[in-house]
Design goal:
This protein is α/β, with parallel strands linked by helices. It has five helices and five strands, in the order E-H-E-H-E-H-E-H-E-H. The chain has helices at residues 23-39, 60-75, 93-104, 121-126, 134-146, and strands spanning 11-15, 43-45, 80-85, 109-113, 129-131.
Length: 148
């Protein structure tokens, strides 16, 4: 059974496409989601904001390990996940991995999807709930987390 972390507002890990995305669009999305979660009484946790950036090691594999280990450590401090998989035909490798970890750790994961992902067995099995609108996903999270 998952134990809620004691914070003023439930902490929601925000997972979404990162690699190859436009920096301004990424920032605007985080701003919008921060506002929408706050309106539902929830606090965004953006793992990207605190990811290790600089590294002195020669091998990029160490950097990748550092990022993954960081993100998973942050995920474990959260009460739930809001996952944005709303871009059709986007490769969401990191999100899918986070989804599976959240499922294994009994952390609710609510996913905002594009219609093209509607019938994906692995996604539907691991997600707590799936919505085609971010507003509906956040509303569900608010109800789920404030009911506890």
């Amino acid at each position: 059974m998952m134990v809620l972390v004691n914070h003023a507002a439930p902490r929601v890990y925000f997972a979404r496409a990162i690699d190859g995305e436009n920096d301004a669009e990424k920032a605007a999305l985080v701003t919008a989601v921060t506002t929408e979660l706050a309106a539902a009484g929830l606090m965004i946790v953006d793992p990207v904001a605190t990811e290790p950036r600089a590294h002195t090691r020669e091998n990029d594999n160490y950097r990748y390990r550092d990022i993954v280990e960081h993100d998973l450590a942050v995920l474990q401090t959260c009460d739930a996940v809001l996952m944005d998989m709303s871009k059709p035909n986007r490769n969401y490798i990191g999100c899918v991995c986070e989804l599976v970890y959240a499922h294994r750790w009994h952390i609710p994961c609510v996913v905002n999807i594009s219609e093209v992902y509607r019938n994906r067995a692995w996604l539907l099995f691991h997600a707590t709930a799936v919505f085609e609108s971010r507003c509906a996903a956040i509303s569900y999270l608010g109800e789920l987390l404030t009911a506890r």
